[in-house]
Amino acid sequence: MKVRRFTASSMQKALKTVRDEMGPDAVILSNHRVSGGVEIIVAQNYEPVSAKKAAPIYNADDFDDHETNTAPKAAPAISKQNDNPWPFLNESERHQVQEQLKLQDQLEALKRQRESEQKPASQPNINVNTQSGLQASLQQIKQQRQEPGYAYQPPESPSKKLHAQYDEAKAQQNQQILSDVRNELNDLKDLLVNGSGSSAVATSNHFVWKKFSPANALQAKLWQRLENMGFDEWLIYRLLHTIQSHVDEKQAWQTCLHELAQHMNISPSDRLKRGGVFALVGPTGAGKTTTIAKMAVRYTLEHDEAKVGLVTMDNYRLAAHDQLRTLGQILGVPVQVADQDHPLSYCLKQLEHCDLVLIDTAGLTPEHPMLKYQLDQIAQLKTPITTLLTMPATSNARVLRKVYHNYKGAKLNGCVLTKVDEASSLGEAITVLLECKLDLAYCTDGQRIPDDIDPANAKALVKQAVRMAQQEQQMVANMNIAAGAW
């Protein structure tokens, strides 16, 4: 918004000047009489802010050219004693108008001062009407020149101080214009980014990449790619702060993925090879029983003379024991059922001769009264035990966090990420693993026993997450093309 003050002998002349210099769309903010005529204050490119009771706004064409020294039609008279001459402006706009008027007054004062100082110095008043007067004047000038320190000086040029004041005022005006242009460009940039990017960026974090330098488009691109992979904002923000500003996009992307893999907690070795007692806990349908079957068969194949024992604590589902009993018959290994008559400690005592014991638990809801009892049995065992949380990669971050908090009472030693092949992205699962500081022991990616289970590998998991994100984007693009054709 540009604000200017105009004065003229009449309202008609003032309005003509406004139309000539600022166009017919200029908006009159105020008008009042001054000595010698009228004064009006005009704004250009003014967009009024809606209010409950806004005052009417007039432009130059709303005035009658045939009436002079009159106010706008239907406009209330503006009192000189009114502390707020522009009631229809908000506080920010009033401040902007006052600053521009003040700056305009300073510039006009400086121009008048420069004009007065540039006028030639006045000459001595010489009376040339008479010869005696002329001689007296010449004698006076001669005496002045003979005085000590007198020397001819040319007319003074504008002082350096005046130049500095003028330049400072001009710089302030230019700075204000530059600031307005910069703000408009930033608004356009936000609009373009929001229009071409994911809508989740605008809704979830209100253009969270504004936290970075507006000039750093590289961080904005990386943010978009990491968000498409499903990572949470806190993790993305931490990863991007490791990026140097002078690197190219490919190098920066590789750095992000490397940092991500480095921060993941991975079990140092295949825990299953050492044998011992393992308990798998987790919600219903997470894949606990299938994972136990894969672990039991793999251990049996790798250790010919090893003895494996199975324990089930699931007494709540119909025919819950059948799967483990069938597996035990196939492998020729004993199966124990832990219940109120035969607690878990008793079952483990019966299988103490086994090299590997795998415990399958019931997937109970947090509200179920037996969940705490089941977890307490595992946590209070005197026998060394490795408790692994079974986390399905198909669940979102909120569900996975809830799973962790529901089962952390079992003194977790790590986790198994299941159903990786069924997930659409791995970013949310990896985010929760880092957030909860869980060691990742195994990943499962299919129903084949015992093939579809592998010790966790951070780099391989990150690569798979990138590949899933690319496939997801390609699928969305194909769907958009199909929808457009339809």
Structure description:
The protein is of the alpha/beta class and 486 residues long. It has three domains: 2-110, no CATH class; 197-263, no CATH class; 271-474, Rossmann fold (3-Layer(aba) Sandwich), CATH 3.40.50. 47% of the residues lie in helices and 13% in strands. It has helices at 11-22, 91-117, 131-146, 160-196, 199-205, 217-228, 233-240, 249-263, 288-302, 322-331, 344-350, 369-379, 397-407, 427-436, 458-485; strands at 2-8, 27-34, 37-44, 58-59, 276-281, 308-312, 335-337, 356-360, 386-392, 414-418, 440-444, 453-455. It has an eight-stranded mixed beta sheet, with helices on both faces. A four-stranded antiparallel beta sheet has the order 1-3-2-4, with helices on both faces. Helix 10 (322-331) links the parallel strand 6 (308-312) and strand 7 (335-337). Helix 2 runs antiparallel to helix 4 (160-196), helix 6 runs antiparallel to helix 7 and helix 9 runs parallel beside helix 10 (322-331). It is rod-shaped. The two termini are 46 Å apart. Residues 49-60, 62-82 and 194-211 have low confidence and may be disordered.
* Uncertain stretches of 5 or more adjacent residues: 49-60, 62-82, 194-211
Query: Which CATH-level-2 architecture of the largest domain?
Result: 3-Layer(aba) Sandwich
Number of H/I helices: 15
Beta-strand fraction estimate:
5-15%
Shape: rod-shaped
State Rg. Answer: 42 Å
> How would you state the average pLDDT, rounded?
74
CATH secondary-structure class of the largest domain: Alpha Beta
Number of domains: 3
Order of helices and strands: EHEEEHHHHHHHEHEHEHEHEHEHEEH
- The SS-based structural class is alpha/beta
Number of DSSP E strands: 12
